[in-house]
Amino acid sequence: GSEMCIRDRNEISNLNLKDDYNTNIEYWRQQVYLSSKQTFDLALQSINKYPNLQKVVVVKRPPRFDSPIAVHLSEYGNNVLDDLWMRNNCPSKIAVRNMDIECEGDDKFQSYGSPSSRGYDGIHLRGPQAVPYMTRPFIKMLTSTFPHFQQKRKN
Fold first, then answer.
1. pLDDT tens digits, one per residue of 37-87
2. Binning pLDDT at 50, 70 and 90, where does residue 150 land?
3. 3-class DSSP state for residue 49?
4. For residue 80, with 0-12 CB atoms within 10 Å meaning exposed, 13-18 middle and 19 or more buried, which class applies?
């Protein structure tokens, strides 16, 4: 059998980023580091507890557009995940993957919505094409990690 564990990481959204940057940046980075470490540790524990698992996929945080500090912290947290993977000798049963959500130019508005649209927050995909813009990269990420998921093409 296979099991799936999803761990929600909303630590950046839970921080009060309106506080003074210079006074709080190290604390914010520490919180993001700890969250990334807890996520990676869960992946390590999973492959140790369930040796028959073929692979555990750790999905990086998606891009954010709500504030420069949140963008920085999100990128930092994703870099921590890569670093932890390398520091643990690049375990072949753990894949740290990015979902390449289309978010350049008009694609950003199609996936995240425009800043003037109702409900826009720069974090959640609420644009008119949010579902396909989220689904396509998710499928691409999974099929590149698990090639046997790809549909067999008929000649």
1. 999 999 999 999 999 999 999 999 998 999 999 999 999 999 999 999 999
2. confident
3. helix
4. buried
